[in-house]
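Ticket closed. Logging final result for Short chain enoyl-CoA hydratase.
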Amino acid sequence: MTDSEPPQPEIDSHAEDGVGWIRLRRPPLNIISTRMADDVADAVARFDADPAVRIIVVASALDRAFAAGSDVGEHDLAHVHDHSRAIFRMVRSLAAVDGKPRIAAINGICSGGGNELAFACDMVIACEDTRLALPEIDIGVVSVLAALLMAHHVGQTKLLDLAFSGRWIDAAEAERIGLTVRTLPRAGFDADLREHLRTFTAKSGPALRIGRRLLLSALGRADLDARLDALERGIVEEAIAIPDYAEGVAAFLEKRKPSWR
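Final structure:
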């Protein structure tokens, strides 16, 4: 791409058969940039307002990954505040109590910020080739935002194990511990996913939206915004302010082992 050419879109979005599709498209691994996060939030708002859409699905346009984290290159002091704002805006748009059901369909690598995107949704469907991790601990920060969102799906002890170890789990373990609701085979994944989505699109759109709002409110999700506000402040003012985080980011970009204090 030359300077005169417009940047390539980082997501594809369109409505089809009652589904508002948001497909991530930032080769090679869908690393989540500030722009991508803002584009996802904008697409969610459009689909929530579109009467032809009954459910919103976030998926990948790439075979290798759903999303392999957020862009560490935007974690420097000049960009990290804008990047954090966009990530939290994306999460709030998906986790908002008033909206249509949101489903993440994940495949390949789903790590770090990819989990923030996936688990802000109401449920997660996985391809059998999916591998998940919260590896931010290896650059000097615990993945607290993804962990908070994953807490709606899995118990605290298992969650702390994933957040503190950064270890990888496969699709079978993710379904076994409750992170995902269904695992589909790699062969025919898209067709099987579309078939499963008809379970939801065959239902009343208003009933789904109202029921989602009432149920999530009853489950205590109405106060999520306040918790996200506190978490965002804590990340910016504490978690990424320590010297070990700066060292971890530098080591990652320089492809070396970090030297912790």
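Strands lie at 11-16, 19-24, 55-60, 65-68, 102-106, 109-111, 123-127, 131-133, 169-170, 182-184. No further action required.
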